[in-house]
Write the structure tokens for this entry.
Amino acid sequence: MIEQIKNDIKKTLEAYYLKTYNKEIDIVVEEPKNASLGDISIPMFSVVKTLRKPMPDIIEEAMPIIKASSDVILSLSNVGAFINLIIDKKLLAKNVIKEVLIADTNYGSSDIGANQKVVLDYSSPNIAKSFSVGHLRSTMIGNSLNLILKKCGYDTFSINYLGDWGTQFGKMIVAYKKWGNLAKIKEDPINELTALYVRFHEEAKDDPTLDEEARKAFKKMENRDPEYLELWRWIREESLKESAQIYDLLGIKFDSYNGEAFYNDKMDQIVEELENKGLLKDDQGAKIVDLGEDMPPALIKRSDGGSLYITRDLAALFYRKNNYHFDRILYVVGNEQKLHFNQLKRLVTKMGYDFADQIEHVNFGLYLTNGKKMSTRQGGVVKLYDVLMKAISLAYDLITIKSPNLANKEEIAKAVGIAAIVFGDLKNSRWLDAEFDLEQSVKFEGQTGPYLQYTSVRIASILKDRTFDIAKCDIDVFEKPHYFDLVRQIASFKDTIEKAAMECAPSLIARYLLSLAQSFNKFYSLEKINALNENVRNSNFALAKAIRIVINEGLRLLGISYVDEM
């Protein structure tokens, strides 16, 4: 709401000067560093410079224009070149709380993305490997961004671009043929296949011929060898079964599961276009595109004719542009793929297309355990399903201690355990590495998902079986700093969501929720919410209800469920 007032003042003044003087003037509206000067401050230097009129005349002319821009401006004053405003905190608080209660879950919605299509590529696990904690970041950042963008009015399309093709399957086939036990694999497909993959890399350290065997095996797959393709289809199907368990637990759905293999028959036309445009060059039998002195060339085809990841990504990109007509495409992929996406954008430009700027690499850091990267190749993978089950078990134990007679403990523990894992990830700035700490994440205090859920439950308990009349509130209480601080935070929810959408940063919402919850718990310690005075009680209940609406909706945007008891 404060930001809205500032925007209204800016637009009103700029429109006035354009209409009156036919001058475009960029008006700055800010919050003064010295709070005693007011709530909002407007420096008028730019107006004086443009209109070449004395400062007193500029000030006198602007004041009534500003006053008319908002009904919550209590007073205006002038200090030097600044016009300072004091906001009617009582009226503002009443308006904000009423808006939240009426809008309910729609509060914070925005139209900044109206008529814009965003495609999101995230999660994208490799088949034939366990769905590890390492895939959590792409999955949850992407899912949250999808929800945030929808909240901002964007039309979104989510893609789980499965890693279901490539030399890794040549390695898997070689490992299966050399060391695989079909009976054991059928009994426990993913664990056995993962073990074979790890063994391949261990053996390849001493036997480099294995890598050449893997490349030949993959080439046979690309040449449609029936035996290899049948094995690949079975591995893919078993992998999807395991992934479905994870997505069901996390409540995540995708609009498309088209993986790399889907684009096998779409790559030739891309290679042909590169050839026709004179971009392909021979390099020791391989096909490359020179991307300039500042970037390594893009390897389009290996010397044996095999395709590569960037070739498939190019085919996928053009398919998505032609079929989904995106305005932005977000690739939620780790920091280490920065060069790949820079090459992809450069290729699009060299091919003569103008949408390279619509390609965004939403990069993120590694998930570390004890300061080290998890690696399937080295057998250090931590299965996400096991971690989620452990978190749910820990949550169940904590809930049993706190509320032994609570009904639906299993269902609530599931929501709390998943909140612990998801929030433990999303509270971190995505581009930084994050240390995975399961037991810390499940605690009901500190910077955790369960802490936010518990704050929401505390409010639900306060409001249980209570009624209040917002028309009979004592709005004088909102002049108290700890009251108005909450109103100010609630009012900034929409701005926080929009900023998270523009910066692709769910952590902004996560940290906002922590701050709001902490402010409410401070408020709870200072005030008797079920006050004796009816009007004060109505104010307290209305404020608490508004805070719970915002916390619950914020949790939803992070992909976390709220609970009513715990």
